[in-house]
Amino acid sequence: MNRLLADHTLPVLRRSGNYKPCIHRHNNLVQSLTTEYKIERFKGRVDKLREDVVEMFNDVSEPLDQLELIDDLQRLGVAYYFDGEIKSTLEKIFEDQNNNHWEIKDLHATALKFRLLRQHGYAVSEDVLESFMENGSIKECLWDDVKGSLSLYESYYFSSEGDSLMEAAWCFTTKTLREHLDDIIDPILSIKVRHALKSPLDWRMPKLEARWYIDVYSRSNNMNPALLELAKLDFNIVQGVYQEDLKSFSRFWNELGLANRLSFARDRLVESFIWAVGMNVNPELRYSRIQLAKQVQFITYIDDIYDVYGTLDEVELFTDAIERWDINSIEQLPDYMKICFLALYNFVNEMVYKIFKEQSFDVLPHLKRTWLDLAKAYCEEARWYHSGYKPTLEEYLRNGMKSIAIQICIVQNYICSENPVRREALTFLMDMPEILSSACLLGRIIDDNGTSSHELARGDVLKAVQCHMSDTGCTEEEAHAHMKDLMRELWRRMNKYRLQNMALPLQVVDYIFDLLRATHYTYRDGDGFSVQHDGKSKILLSALIVEPIPG
Fold this sequence. Notes:
By secondary structure, the protein is mainly alpha-helical. The protein is about 65% helix and about 0% strand. The protein is built from 24 helices and 2 strands. Mean pLDDT is about 90; it is low at about 1-10. Its cofactor is Mn(2+); Mg(2+).
């Protein structure tokens, strides 16, 4: 196709996203971060506390007590220390379920067992609820069982498509928990119910949830001092690791200089890093965490080129340059695109070199294709905008599954975190399997739910809600309700894949879910990525990176 070169001589009328400058001063704030919680200093104490918790596993014999211990470990953020103990305990509970009905009259116990087994990939049937059902709903005599209803409410979010009993349970528990909000006597239970109704456990960022739960657990009657101390120490030590990683990322981004050369784009260094923490929680995932933070920043800058600043001719040329992946192809680009392409080219190729040096595996074709797919999706949206075209919801979501950038993040994160990279797993991800396509669709809807009002105000193309309104003639309120129902449906579809054997390591499945959790948190109450001045990013920075938990 013949294209005119982008004209560098005539003045170009460009759009503006009206983005506020970054509120986080990289060098002043980030580089000054420090902590006394160094692993070298506290390793001995951590090891002793881990031994104490292992003894707790040995001392606890009742299945419900075992499940509650596992639940506490997960919510406190220290379950990764005890993977072996957790796996063997859940395996035994799953194998014994047909011969041992210890939980049959306890709604809390039944729901907790269902949730933890489903979470860990055990195909436990929703039929465990049958003894609590009557005429297609939960028995009315359980209306006042708030603890049981809370456990059942949380377990619903680990159910799958087709789990009709769980759908009925969700309707019951949502209603009863809301109606009991003001008359729950137990203060800790009241806090947990309000927290769950705001957002269920399975939709929350694990590390942020751990900080919240450590405070709640410290005030609980069944608090174990050794477990609480381990949770606090681990959080603070890992926070120190995050600080060093953020410093490294900040130095890289400042030395790159794109923030000065592309001043029209969103400079969201801290938000990008927190997103990377959400997906790479464990401290040892340093390389993949830092590389993902860099990638999210590149995606943000390139999104703003296509969405706001670039002309249609320019973005088509930029897409062409990514497809060619050739330094010589940048001659036709305007200067602001040249420096962006060169920075991206070097970033990707350095990763390719590292992986090839360590594993003799060339991942360049895979990374190039993910960037090209993203660029083409951005370009399609640019064409819609410049032509005034209004896509149907089906058209919008088909393209939006690519433009949401979930696949590109998952592919790179897998490449950077796995050694060795498994060719069959990488091929599986590149072919957009159902678990990934569902995640992309869900991410698109979550994103639109938080950003559409801001983006429509500057004249962007219609988002999912508006496309649905245009297709059906429904009201905006009805369209938002439809999208919320679709989000729940997609989360449940995602849960189905937890129970299937796929060509993916379980760690990668966790990455997909954790990326969706970070997305949900970011856009739950509006655009928590672009709009820094709502205070959300400062709260996150303080909670996850800056302020340790008092001992």
